[in-house]
Write a structure and sequence with these properties.
- The complex is a heterodimer of chains A (263) and B (283).
- Chain A is built from seven helices and ten strands.
- Chain A is an alpha/beta fold and 263 residues long.
- Chain A has two domains: 162 residues, Rossmann fold; 65 residues, no CATH class.
- In chain A, the strands form two sheets. In chain A, strands 6-7-8-3-9-10 form a six-stranded mixed β-sheet, with helices on both faces. In chain A, strands 2-1-4-5 form a four-stranded antiparallel β-sheet, covered by helices on one side.
- The longest helix of chain A has 26 residues.
- In chain A, 45% of the residues are buried.
- Chain B has a domain of 188 residues: Orthogonal Bundle (MetI-like fold), CATH 1.10.3720.
- Chain B has eleven helices and no strands.
- The chains are: A alpha/beta (263), B mainly alpha (283).
- At the A-B interface, strand 6, helix 2, helix 4 and helix 5 of A face helix 8 and helix 9 of B.
Chain lengths: 263, 283
């Protein structure tokens, strides 16, 4: 599968239009994006810029209304285990323990029970939740829930991990720790990650490449390579230059809206 | 990613002291409180009926004597002596048989109506029109369809239990968070496999509410059902005793239905607690 010349994800002029109550909304227009294996790409933009739509097209939850969404050069047929999704609201199964949530994917793919148990065990320890293996989701903190959500996607041998503002609902300290843990996991496993965020600093801290998107209709505006050495120092001048530049770009998207409010 | 654990919501995953365990300490006081109102009612009953030969309602002591006669005999030695268990087991069979049949029909139907638009469009209108028809209104038709006898009673119990189970199952299925279907799909669980692994467990709290209500209705309906020329059953004994003006037997039958209904509800609740331990609002 892993032909190095074929990108793992290839979005070709992807457009998405919703029709509801006789009104059409263009959520995404002609988005072109390729992601290579092992890359960490952030989709950054204000709300309504289509970043989540693009992610959901890549996941297979939405079919593009125009253009093509390809994985390894083939059209994405629908949601599937090769593209694991981590939601902001976790999406854990409340009736399953941590262990069974993590084992859900392998079990769905008809792995033998003993193997499912081994896999679950391995990924429980990977995210450091050994003491909570038999807890139910409602007994966990937000950070722990998101660890389970990440572990269950990895336990299912996802080739691409799609993350939709996964740390958006967490407090600042937990968010920073999970960012570190995610980077460590990424560098250790060679995962491919497509990560949606509206936080500039998060994007610079995490990404190889930042895809800046803008609203009305949602589209890809610019793509920035981030070649700062890792682990990135958020207080370094280079980090701040990039932050200032992206902030100016992001605020220009907000400008019309703030003007209307002021008037 | 094994670096530390952020502030946990619980010190450990071991279950917190359950309400049942806390209640053990105050169990005696609670049982005492529960007896206060029945004691007052029995006292009023006693005061208003005892020592009045022309009272149409027999006093508590007379009813208690009759209850003993019904259960083990040796007091009146009439046609009713020692027949309680025959009637009770006949009613129990009909209640649980009708209820089981209703659950077996309503559960899959509810899952399909809740999840498959075509099935919903096909069945929902019919079921909604039939729903307001009271079970008692079915009685004449049931007698024509199933004849005089236990089969009519069985049918009415089925009907009484069917709708609460169906309605709550549909409601439970329709209120499953869409996110969970997405999560299941991206983990490789799609199509019909989602019924067993997502729809059913997610709707279980609601389904249990339906089962409890359904079983309650089954006990309500059984008396009506057994008034149609059935020889055995608590409804039959109540009807027969009424015709013979044996009011003390009528009251005994009512009391037994109350206790039996209470015990079955308690059993379903116990089962629910066990199966819904994961739910913060049950468990």
């Amino acid at each position: 599968m892993a032909d190095p010349t074929v990108p793992i994800l290839d979005m070709r002029a992807v457009g998405k239009t919703y029709r509801a109550n006789g009104r059409t909304t263009e959520a995404l227009r002609e988005a072109n994006l390729t992601v290579s294996r092992g890359e960490f790409v952030c989709l950054l933009g204000a709300s309504g810029c289509g970043k989540s739509t693009l992610l959901r097209v890549a996941a297979g939850f939405e079919a593009p209304t125009s253009g093509q969404a390809l994985m390894w050069g083939k059209p994405i047929p629908g949601p599937g285990p090769s593209r694991g999704m981590v939601f902001q609201d976790y999406g854990l199964f409340p009736w399953l323990t941590v262990r069974d949530n993590i084992g859900f994917g392998p079990k769905s793919r008809k792995r033998p029970a003993a193997e499912v148990r081994d896999i679950a065990e391995r990924y429980i320890s990977l995210v450091g939740l050994q003491a909570f293996a038999d807890a139910y989701p409602h007994q966990l903190s937000g950070g722990m829930k998101q660890r389970v959500a990440i572990a269950r996607v990895l336990a299912n041998e996802a080739e691409v991990v799609l993350m939709d503002e996964p740390f958006g609902a967490l407090d600042a300290m937990t968010r920073e720790r999970l960012q570190d843990e995610l980077l460590e996991l990424w560098s250790r496993t060679g995962l491919t990650i497509l990560f949606v965020t509206h936080a500039i600093e998060e994007a610079i801290f995490l990404a190889d490449r930042i895809v800046m998107m803008s609203p009305g209709p949602g589209r890809i505006e610019t793509v920035h390579e981030v070649d700062l050495p890792r682990r990135r120092d958020v207080s370094s001048p280079a980090f701040n230059d990039l932050r200032r530049m992206l902030a100016a770009q992001l605020h220009s998207h907000h400008a019309p809206r703030t003007a209307t409010v002021a008037a | 990613m094994s670096t530390g654990i952020d502030a946990p919501a619980l010190p450990a995953p071991t279950p917190a002291p359950s309400p049942a365990r806390i209640a053990l300490g105050g169990g005696l006081a609670r049982a005492g409180l529960a007896l206060v109102v029945p004691a007052i009612l029995v006292a009023i009953w006693q005061i208003t009926t005892a020592g009045r030969p022309y009272s149409l309602i027999p006093p508590p002591a007379e009813v208690w004597a009759e209850m003993r006669d019904l259960a083990i005999g040796g007091v009146n030695d009439d046609a009713f002596s020692g027949t309680l268990w025959t009637h009770l087991s006949a009613s129990l069979m009909r209640v649980y048989g009708g209820f089981a049949l209703a659950a077996a029909a309503a559960l899959p139907l509810g899952l399909l109506i809740g999840r498959v638009p075509v099935v919903r469009a096909l069945l929902d209108p019919v079921l909604q029109i039939l729903r307001p028809v009271p079970v008692t209104a079915w009685l004449p038709l049931a007698m024509i369809l199933f004849g005089l006898g236990p089969r009519s009673a069985f049918f009415l119990v089925f009907l009484g239990a069917f709708y609460p189970i169906l309605v709550n199952t549909v409601f439970g299925v329709r209120s499953v968070e869409p996110r969970l279907f997405e999560a299941a799909a991206m983990l490789g669980c799609t199509g019909p496999a989602q019924f067993a692994r997502v729809v059913l467990p997610a709707a279980l709290p609601s389904i249990f509410t339906g089962l409890r209500l359904g079983l309650g209705f089954a006990w309500v309906v059984i008396v009506v059902g057994e008034m149609t020329g059935v020889q055995t059953g608590l409804g039959a004994i109540i009807m027969e005793a009424r015709q013979l003006s044996r009011t003390e037997i009528v009251i005994c039958g009512m009391a037994v239905i109350g206790v039996a209904g209470f015990v079955s509800d308690w059993l379903v609740m116990r089962l629910g607690r066990k199966l819904l331990a994961w739910s913060p609002s049950h468990g």
